[in-house]
Amino acid sequence: MQIDLGCPDSFTLAAVRQLLASASDDVHTQLRVTKAGIAYISSGVVGGVDIDGVLFRLETWAAGSGYVGKIAASDEVWVMQVFNALKENWPNPPYDYIDVY
């Protein structure tokens, strides 16, 4: 699943919730945003690996930490925090790596 941040109809809290729910907490994950404004969760490929075309990325979420999956998606505060991180950093992030949000 992915979210087009440039399209107000697709960049919603519900979409962020669905994005988080779609990922498995069994592997390391990282929320990434391409230069075209497509937000997606990279599973297994995290950190500074394969970041060509990536405008910015959030910190890596360790496997088993509860940042993704159905339980994470049911946490309203967490979903809002991720939504706001995307909103505040797209399209002009101060850095390509965001770890405070």
What does this structure look like?
By secondary structure, the protein is α+β, with helices and mostly antiparallel strands. Helices cover 28% and strands 22% of the residues. It has a five-stranded mixed sheet with strand order 1-3-2-4-5.
Q: Helix count, per DSSP?
A: 3
User: Stretches where pLDDT falls below 50 for ≥5 residues?
Assistant: none
Order of helices and strands: EHEEEHHE
Beta-strand portion reads 15-25%
Physical arrangement of strands within the biggest beta sheet: 1-3-2-4-5
Structural domains: how many: 1
Give the overall silhouette: globular
Number of strands: 5
For the CA atoms, what is the radius of gyration? 12 Å
Distance between the termini: 22 Å
Question: What does the average pLDDT come to?
Answer: 97
In short:
With 101 residues, the chain is of the alpha+beta class. The chain has helices at 13-22, 70-73, 76-89, and strands at 2-4, 29-34, 38-43, 54-58, 97-98.
Keywords:
single chain; 101 residues; alpha+beta; five-stranded mixed sheet; 5 strands; globular
SSE blueprint and pairings:
Blueprint: E1 2-4, H1 13-22, E2 29-34, E3 38-43, E4 54-58, H2 70-73, H3 76-89, E5 97-98
Parallel strand pairs: 4-5
Antiparallel strand pairs: 1-3, 2-3, 2-4
Helix pairs in contact: 1-3
